[in-house]
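Task: sequence design from structure.
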């Protein structure tokens, strides 16, 4: 009977998985507890703390050899500390012989820096390489800023969607939502807005004009004259003159008069654009204005600006901690997405298809 017992123990060990929280903050621990409660497992024992010189230290308090490990990491305001916590914990698990290390990162940081701008760098690609080097073998995230970011990684990325939860909120919590219209605050957000509008069977409006571009390329050297060289050779090509953009007057494409306006986006951080959009929609006759966004970063004085604006309600998910902002602004509401994160963990561990989590969801969403 001894070999049978050994085989049974080996099978148990092989199928075991643990869930750890890479952040000692209350918000991350709360999300991790919600996920583990839904899964019916205990949260892994670990300690994550900052030394007196601000170095990150991680101590894993139990054996992880040969196991599949899920690391839950929410990104609070100190984004760089959170990244180091994730990297150090992943590397600690890797060197402790964990079989698979899967990062559950609902909001992926630096996702806005996913394109080359002037003489900058694509930081999102750098972070993807760092996570792979630290030992991660898979990532579960939610509503990446650009879908193409998945191509930066050398391992699988499951980009979950929050839209079913936000659509459910619209249907259940917004009275008379049938009289609503979905609004894209810029043409760039039109695809996401169209996806919401089609699934809710509502109309669509797009705000166009006053292109929000905080970057000016006047000072980056492109307009500086070339050095004068006394060469008698080839004089160079005559390139066509680059036409400068001219901001058109702001217009709303679509009728919002007498309607509830619902602005949808993936991230709400600097709320200036949203406040300006709300003012325009009020002028055009919208009588209530809601904002639906997956990641509520709400930096700086965003809560105060929302409270003083024409916006009636801002609905975000709990991918990012925002308890302090909610205390400052009662207009901010939270939708819990721990259910889909827990289901993704369960399906990955059991080797089940993830397609069920993406049913009726288009690529544009």
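Answer:
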């Amino acid at each position: 009977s001894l070999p049978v017992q050994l085989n049974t123990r080996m099978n148990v060990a092989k199928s075991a998985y643990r869930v750890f929280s890479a952040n000692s903050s209350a918000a991350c621990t709360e999300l991790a507890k919600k996920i583990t409660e839904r899964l019916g497992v205990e949260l892994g024992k670990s300690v994550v703390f900052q030394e007196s010189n601000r170095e990150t230290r991680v101590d894993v308090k139990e054996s992880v050899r040969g196991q599949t490990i899920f690391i839950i990491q929410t990104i609070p305001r100190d984004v760089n500390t959170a990244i180091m916590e994730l990297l150090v914990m992943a590397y600690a698990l890797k060197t402790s012989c964990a079989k698979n290390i899967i990062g559950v990162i609902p909001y992926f940081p630096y996702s806005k820096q996913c394109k080359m701008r002037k003489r900058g760098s694509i930081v999102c690609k750098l972070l993807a390489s760092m996570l792979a080097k630290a030992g991660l073998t898979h990532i579960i995230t939610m509503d990446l800023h650009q879908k193409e970011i998945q191509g930066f990684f050398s391992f699988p990325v499951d980009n979950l969607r929050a839209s079913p939860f936000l659509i459910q909120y619209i249907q259940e919590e917004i009275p008379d939502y049938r009289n609503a219209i979905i609004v894209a605050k810029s043409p760039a957000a039109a695809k996401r807005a169209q996806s919401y509008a089609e699934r809710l069977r509502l109309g669509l409006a797009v705000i166009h004009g006053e292109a929000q571009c905080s970057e000016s390329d006047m000072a980056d050297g492109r307009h500086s004259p070339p050095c004068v060289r006394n060469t008698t050779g080839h004089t160079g090509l005559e390139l066509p003159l680059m036409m400068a953009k001219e901001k058109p007057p702001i217009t709303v494409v679509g009728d919002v008069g007498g309607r509830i306006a619902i602005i949808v986006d993936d991230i709400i951080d600097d709320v200036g654009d949203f406040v300006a959009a709300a003012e325009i929609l009020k002028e055009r006759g919208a009588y209530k204005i809601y904002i639906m966004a997956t990641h509520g970063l709400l930096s700086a004085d965003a809560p105060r600006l929302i409270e003083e604006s024409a916006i009636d309600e801002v609905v975000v998910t709990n991918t990012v901690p925002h308890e302090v902002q909610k205390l400052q602004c009662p207009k901010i509401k939270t939708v819990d997405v721990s259910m889909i994160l827990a289901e993704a963990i369960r399906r990955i561990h059991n080797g089940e298809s993830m397609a069920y989590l993406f049913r009726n969801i288009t690529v544009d969403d």
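Residues 1-14 have pLDDT under 50 and may be disordered.
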